[in-house]
Design goal:
The protein is an alpha/beta fold and about 160 residues long. It is about 25% helix and about 35% strand.
């Protein structure tokens, strides 16, 4: 039997893999906006593209690469956006949200105290990826949540 772990040390069973135009610039953005720490990085032989990079944000790893249309690997910029939202829980949503905006993210949902118990807001980074930034601020029972969602839905109508 092999001593190799099927899930490498420090990894989770699901790892987001972001495709970006200008992945090197995206890495710099994620470092500034979210405190990402770059781990392993492999550039193309000519140094023009990132083939693979690993960023640690909090206790999680995000893979990142430049787009390679010839391999069917396209960024949100090439396909007109992304339906995926990356949820980022942090100690201080206000500080991280402000850092992301300062680094160049666009606000799509301002921070607010949401009915489900999080301080929550969303930004789109300069590379087309949407990030929900949250800090859990209170526990909400399933009954409270159901009542709150009904009130929210009524207010939306």
């Amino acid at each position: 039997m092999s001593d190799v772990k099927p899930v490498p040390e420090g990894m989770h069973t699901i790892t987001p893999h972001l495709v970006c135009k200008e992945a090197g610039e995206a890495i710099a953005f994620y470092e500034k906006a979210f405190g990402a720490v770059q781990g392993y990085r492999m550039d193309s032989p000519d140094g023009s593209k990132v083939l693979h990079a690993e960023l640690r944000i909090g206790d999680s790893v995000v893979f990142l690469a430049d787009e390679f249309p010839e391999w069917g690997s396209l960024s949100p910029a090439s396909i007109g956006g992304s339906p995926v939202v990356l949820s980022l829980y942090v100690e201080d949503a206000d500080a991280v949200f402000a850092a992301a905006v300062e680094a160049g993210a666009r606000v799509v949902m301002p921070l607010e105290d949401a009915f489900w118990g999080d301080r929550y807001g969303k930004v789109v980074d300069p590379f087309g990826h949407t990030w929900a930034i949250a800090t859990h601020i209170r526990d909400v029972s399933p009954e409270e949540m159901q009542q709150a969602v009904q009130q929210w839905a009524a207010a939306q109508a």
